[in-house]
């Protein structure tokens, strides 16, 4: 499965692993893939510590950092995160906070100790925070790529990333997105089909990938949304992608940041349990069905706010559920793709990577056997 | 691409073409694939005429007939179609008929001449009609398979089909459906991903196919939803399917039943224009966005009725739009999958089939070249 992007990034397998967990990122890059740390949810100081740790663990290999800048960030450009936080807080109706707190108390999730930091105190998906994340990433020379989960970064940031000798990765959910990203200087496109976890679009992977590949050639395309086996990697390369971008399968590893309860939920989930919800960020996001997502579908629920406001509403829940994992069985918040239905056991990240590679080889051998069968019996079925 | 199902059905390419157009069915079976005629919308007498025609055109090859029986048909089991029609009509609120007529008149679509038959006078998706269709199919010996677009036929009908020496094909949108169908005697499973046209589910093809293959092995699985190129066929076989089931690409052929205006709409459609609507049958159905689908999304629109009642509501529109094609530019009713976004020109059905086969070979050769590249430079990127 050696494609041009393997040469570009000096990697053995064109398998990109998106994870919020530094252990997964380091394990995948060390094993010949390319780990990408999701920066959202980290303060700049926390992110610096994570990247320092990965730098030490990753040896001579490189890795990436994923930031989240909305394409339309009107009103959230503000140099000082604290001032921005205050400004955004003022836009959240009290009923949203009350409803989020009620969901947690209905499930008996304890309050945080007074004064303890939670994610609702952090502005997550704005260019202000993403710029701080990007600056931190560029201070780490082994960070070879900066990805924006919502497409092309603003022009000046793309310029900074390029000046620092790094590459820009942009995610897209349609041909039009992809073309816009390339016009804005994105070096590698991730085409994510509707089955993917987190923010996702409407077009299925099988249909989206080849159209994006054709539309942006020769810009390399990574296939995302539904990558959980080597056969799915083979399908991605068959459809013209130069590699794959995967997230959900890494949630199912021993190393991942999930609570044990979330990992259990992931293992038992069927594909149809990875549903679309706006309850986490305000944008369409695929996540495991849970007490949290269902509460936001009830008739009495307030309508989720747009990004980045719903982030603030959900932030406290994210932190409380990870602080008190024993309560995260029913009411967890777990972005995940439909490939969740394929995860039947928890494994080590490096084993998952090698299994993908092994299954890929088996798959191409199986396809070849079908062709040889045809060659061996030409025209036997021809009329 | 020679798989076991090629031997089972004595076909050259495991490419199944679903179409309501007899020309497409005959052309595909003649060219080495397997055509399947969609019977819905035909009276039993019309269907008999279509099958007689195909029998003559298809030479020594075989083909299939697709019928539509809901899994839950309570209240629609009734021997006499005319009595059933009257019974069902009584369940349709007058506002639904009025709204459908208003959509047509808003777009200037002429009324049918008095007394002229239209599709709203026909009970389409019930076991009563489907049994008549199946009986007609079994009277034609070249009909090798009877497919049910909504899964497993009732047990007694499956028994009749088997006794006649034919095979039962059942469509599914989830692993659970597939397992139920196999338990009910279905011989070949079609796993249709969410991107597919017509009645469709929630799970993307890339994720659905391998799970269904694994769940029902050794029962053969055909991959549906997003098949429009040989690379997509290769992806399907890579994921373990024994062949593909395609519908939308055949709409884009010279032979298809679409009006020229619908064909134009198909050629310009992007994948995101193939949306989910309940306006045609009452069930989730993917179709091209048009004045018809948009009208049913308006706040003042009545909520579409469940199958088979919405069929009756939409039936007159289906007929009027095909009778007066010059009005079908904006207000057409065109079930189609997301693969519509790949169709850029109208071609002959036999050319489409041969192109799929040719692209398939190119794709597997391209994958092999990637492997050879790895073999030729072992460990160059290994750390």
Automatic annotation (TrEMBL), chains A, B:
Q: Name one GO molecular function term.
A: monooxygenase activity
Record keywords, A-Z: Flavoprotein, FMN, Monooxygenase, Oxidoreductase
Q: Which Pfam families match?
A: NMO
Q: Which InterPro entries match?
A: Aldolase_TIM, NMO
Which SUPFAM superfamilies does the UniProt record give? Inosine monophosphate dehydrogenase (IMPDH)
Cite the Gene3D superfamilies for this sequence: Aldolase class I
Q: Which domain of life is it from?
A: Bacteria
| Membrane-crossing residue ranges in chain numbering | none
Q: Mind telling me what this protein is named?
A: Nitronate monooxygenase family protein
Species annotation: Streptomyces plumbiresistens
**Organism phylogeny:** Bacteria, Bacillati, Actinomycetota, Actinomycetes, Kitasatosporales
């Amino acid at each position: 499965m050696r494609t041009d992007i393997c040469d570009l990034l000096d990697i053995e397998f064109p398998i990109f692993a998106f994870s919020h967990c530094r252990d997964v990122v380091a394990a995948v890059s060390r094993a010949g893939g390319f780990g990408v740390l999701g920066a959202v949810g980290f303060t700049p100081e926390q992110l610096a510590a994570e990247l320092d740790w990965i730098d030490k663990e990753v040896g001579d290999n490189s890795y990436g950092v994923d930031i989240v800048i909305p394409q339309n960030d009107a009103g959230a450009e503000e140099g000082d995160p604290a001032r921005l936080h205050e400004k955004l807080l003022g836009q959240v109706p009290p009923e949203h906070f009350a409803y989020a707190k009620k969901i947690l108390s209905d499930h008996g999730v304890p309050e945080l100790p007074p004064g303890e930091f939670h994610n609702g105190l952090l502005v997550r998906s704005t260019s202000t925070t993403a710029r701080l994340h990007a600056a931190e990433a560029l201070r780490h020379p082994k960070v070879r790529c900066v990805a924006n989960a919502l497409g092309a970064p603003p022009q000046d940031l793309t310029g900074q990333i390029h000046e620092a000798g790094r590459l820009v990765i942009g995610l897209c959910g349609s041909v039009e997105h992809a073309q816009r990203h390339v016009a804005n200087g994105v070096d590698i496109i991730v085409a994510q089909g509707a089955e993917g976890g987190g923010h996702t679009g409407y077009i299925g992977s099988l249909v989206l990938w080849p159209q994006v590949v054709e539309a942006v050639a020769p810009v390399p395309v990574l296939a995302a949304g539904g990558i959980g086996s080597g056969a799915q990697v083979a399908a991605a390369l068959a459809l013209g992608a130069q590699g794959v971008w995967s997230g959900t399968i890494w949630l199912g590893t021993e190393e991942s940041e999930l609570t044990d309860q979330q990992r259990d939920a992931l293992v038992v989930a069927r594909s149809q349990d990875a549903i679309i919800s706006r309850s986490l960020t305000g944008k369409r996001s695929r996540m495991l069905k849970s007490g949290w997502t269902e509460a936001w579908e009830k008739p009495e629920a307030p309508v989720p706010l747009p990004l980045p406001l719903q982030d603030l509403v959900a932030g406290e829940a994210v932190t409380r559920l990870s602080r008190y994992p024993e309560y995260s069985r029913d009411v967890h918040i777990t972005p995940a793709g439909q490939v969740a239905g394929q995860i039947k056991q928890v494994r080590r990240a490096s084993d998952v990577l090698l299994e993908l590679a092994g299954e890929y080889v088996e798959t191409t051998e199986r396809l070849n056997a079908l062709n040889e069968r045809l060659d061996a019996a030409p025209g036997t079925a021809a009329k």
